[in-house]
Write a structure and sequence with these properties.
Helices cover 59% and strands 5% of the residues. By secondary structure, the chain is mainly alpha-helical. The chain folds into 2 domains: 311 residues, no CATH class; 157 residues, no CATH class. It has a 6-stranded mixed beta sheet. α7 runs parallel beside α9, α14 runs parallel beside α16 and α15 runs antiparallel to α16. The termini are far apart.
Length: 540
């Protein structure tokens, strides 16, 4: 066992100091976001408002974006329910931030435990370097940045590190802790991507404790099976629309049929895009180096099989996961890989730390910062990213709830649906299974327009390039909302308003024109089209 952590002045330990540093950064960033957005807290992505909208209806007894219409837009089984609990507790819009703050501290504490365990055989007092490594791992993986997205990714990171900690104890010759079996089984509830974590962990556990491996595998299968049965019972696919929309090859799995050639082609295109992401190369390279280092002659170490476990998780993320412009999908892989690198090279790190602690800290910072520059810049860009959402998506929400107050079609679901009781048709298909299926129709434009007409949706507010190939020709552009550059996270600088019914075109135009007269943030500009477009359309 490692020695008790050294007590500092006022009873502070290195871990508590690290937690205070993280808390100070968290508070400073929260204040900066409020300052940037005219005292309104807004997340750095529009996606958490999908969770909030879903949770809002869960509280009312309905599972879906629109009250009374079932849909499954979340890539997490458990997160919408956690958000719903926060809403019931009165936390409101702050619920995702509160959940992420808890997960942030959980990641820090678990990372410190892993680092301390890795260094304990080589250092008499590993608590200071362990706290330093944990803090660096948190920041270099964009843990702070992910917290302000309001999404479930940080929960996924925490679950991954807990499994890593448990497997490290098993690989060190200790008895399998019961909590490890539970966490491995429940991991996919955090995000479906964690299915790779469960599979790899069951395989590794099988080598040392077959009973525990079987229990974890059966538990995970029961969890996913029960959720799939529930989805099917509601008339939805076994997998959520978000997974099916973003990973086409999963459509074959959800339909219990082999993936089609188109699905495989789409997957290959996604794989090529992933390989072009600047994070992928360093991830795979470092994971492979860790495996090679453990194969060198010498006694078997706990890191030997864990390095292969981590390489498998990284490769699964590259092959079947996602990488986006704002780094969040790969955060768990970056965090666990930093700690795995410490585990593999713990003797060398400890020797250098004993000789020159300050130099070791500096070298560690430089080594981690070089391949993690995107994550570090993403943390720095939190206020700018939040400003994007406030200046565009939040203003769209204002228009829909204060001026339109009627059904609308969108292709970027989030603020458009949260705290909006009017019907919202998600043309992209995350919040509407019918819309997702329409994209596979021979004529997507006709299929989507049929949905719009069936739901009597008089207005569409969309990123026009997103649906250019599927936009019905009779939709009339009546205005736009433009976000001034530079853009950090939103998918497009302009939302275009379309009247979908020529008979109501002038009415929709007047609503956009009225919105153009209100006070808007400095980065937001609303323009209106020539009203004669409506007159001409009505005559046709």
């Amino acid at each position: 066992m490692s020695p008790e952590p050294r007590r500092w002045t006022f009873g502070l330990t290195p871990l508590r100091v690290a937690a205070l540093i993280v808390l100070a950064l968290f508070a400073a960033l929260t204040f900066t976001v409020l300052l940037t957005n005219e005292a309104t807290f807004v997340y750095t992505l529009d996606d958490p408002y999908i969770h909030l909208a879903l949770a809002e209806n869960l509280v009312r007894g309905s599972y879906g974006i629109n009250l009374g219409e079932v849909s499954s837009p979340s890539s997490s089984i458990v997160y919408p329910f956690l958000v719903a609990l926060g809403l019931l507790a009165g936390l409101g819009d702050w619920t995702p931030l509160a959940l992420n703050f808890v997960a942030l501290l959980g990641v820090l504490v678990t990372a410190e435990r892993v680092a301390r365990r890795a260094l304990a055989p080589h250092l008499d007092r590993p608590e200071l370097p362990a706290a330093a490594v944990a803090t660096i791992a948190l920041l270099a993986s964009n843990g702070l940045g992910v917290a302000f997205t309001g999404m479930e990714h940080l929960l996924h990171v925490w679950v991954t590190l807990l499994v890593f900690l448990g497997l490290l104890s098993v690989e060190s010759g200790e008895r399998t802790p019961a909590w490890l079996v539970v966490v491995i089984a429940l991991a996919p509830a955090s995000r479906y991507e964690a299915l790779a974590l469960t599979a790899a962990s069951v395989l590794l556990l099988w080598l040392s404790d077959r009973r525990a491996a079987i229990l974890a595998a059966v538990g995970g299968a029961l969890l996913l099976g029960a959720h799939a049965v529930w989805m099917l019972a509601m008339g939805l696919p076994a997998l959520p629309s978000s997974v099916l929309r973003k990973l086409p090859i999963a459509q074959g799995i959800a339909s219990l049929r082999p993936a089609s050639g188109d699905h495989v082609t789409s997957w290959l295109h996604g794989l090529l895009r992933a390989l072009g992401n600047p994070t992928v190369g360093p991830l795979v390279l470092v994971a492979a180096l860790c495996v090679l280092a453990t194969l060198l002659p010498g006694p078997r170490r706990p890191a030997s099989r864990l390095a292969i476990w981590i390489l498998g998780i990284v490769l699964a993320q590259v092959a079947f996961g996602r990488f986006s412009g704002y780094p969040r999908y790969e955060t768990y892989a970056v965090a666990v890989l930093i700690l795995a690198t410490l585990l593999v090279f713990a003797p060398q790190f400890a020797a250098l730390w004993k000789a020159r602690p300050a130099v070791t800290s500096l070298l560690l910072l430089l080594a981690v910062a070089a391949p993690s520059w995107r994550n570090l810049t993403a943390t720095w860009a939190i206020p700018a990213a939040s400003s994007d959402i406030y200046s565009q998506q939040y203003q769209l929400h204002r228009f829909l709830t204060e001026f339109h107050r009627e059904a609308v079609a969108v292709n970027d679901l989030g603020w458009a649906s949260y705290r909006n009781d009017a019907y919202v048709l998600d043309l992209w298909g995350l919040g509407s299974e019918a819309a997702r299926s329409a994209w596979a129709a021979p004529d997507p434009a006709a299929a989507l327009d049929a949905l719009v007409q069936a739901r009597q949706v008089p207005l569409a507010a969309v990123y026009e390039p997103w649906i250019a190939v599927a936009r019905p020709r009779h939709w009339i552009p009546i205005g736009s909302m433009e976000l001034k550059f530079p853009i950090t996270v939103v998918e497009g600088h302009q939302i275009t308003f379309f009247a979908t019914d020529p008979a109501r075109c002038e009415e929709m135009w007047r609503r956009v024109a009225a919105f153009a007269q209100v006070r808007l943030p400095p980065r937001t500009a609303v323009g209106i089209s020539d009203p004669t477009l409506c007159t001409a359309a009505a005559r046709r």
